[in-house]
Amino acid sequence: MGTQLRRCRRGATADTGGEVEVPEEQEQINERRRHRRLPIRLPLECRGRGEPRRRVLRGLTANISSGGIYFEYNLSNEGGSRSLEDVPAGDNLLDMELTVPPGDGHSPYEGRVRTVVEIVRREELPGGAGAGAEGRRRIGLACRFHEPLKLTF
Predict the structure, then answer these.
(1) CA 85 – CA 102 distance, rounded (Å)
(2) How far apart, in whole angstroms, are the C-alpha atoms of residue 122 and residue 89?
(3) Which residues fall within 8 angstroms of residue 151, CB to CB, at 6 or more apart?
């Protein structure tokens, strides 16, 4: 049983004459998404609303869109906070802070983006990160922006 392909019009290209074959599963995923994702790796910190600053979770973004963010972290890096995997998806708000590095075209200074996000999906990812990662669990969290982003430099 192979992957079903479907011909779709996706803009002119020299090699396909404007037609590209897209796997049906990918087309269904794309149709559900409302926001285009930007693959980018940025460090972030987050914690449950009202939790002390010392109980912080550190991770790295995998992608970000105008509607939300997907990031990954090692479960062992939760810094003593309650386990996020025990909270039902869609029922948990997190305070989140991203670090934006300086760069041409936006700012010569490092910046911070703060917001509140709502967890909509969580998944266990294969393998841990870094040396000696045996036994570590890696978690991916898909979150929806719950409040507008606040940018400071």
Answers:
(1) 33
(2) 7
(3) 100, 111, 112, 113
The SS3 call for residue 76 is helix
Q: How far apart are CA 29 and CA 69, in angstroms?
A: 16
What digits encode the pLDDT tens for the residues 47-90?
A: 888 776 667 889 999 999 999 999 999 876 444 444 555 454 54
Of 151, 129, 148, give the one whose Cα is nearest residue 138: 129
* Phi/psi of residue 144, nearest 5 degrees: -100, 140
Joined together, the tokens standing for residue 134 give 């045996």
What's the CA gap between 127 and 132, in Å, rounded? 11
Q: Is 84 helix (H, G, I), strand (E, B) or coil?
A: helix
Q: Which two tokens stand for residue 143?
A: 């979150």
Which helix (H) or strand (E) segment holds residue 28: the answer is helix 24-32
pTM for the whole structure: 0.67
The dihedral over CA atoms of 34, 39, 44, 49, expressed in degrees to the nearest 10, equals: 10
Rounded-to-integer distance, Cα 76 and Cα 43, Å: 16
pLDDT in the model for residue 25: 56
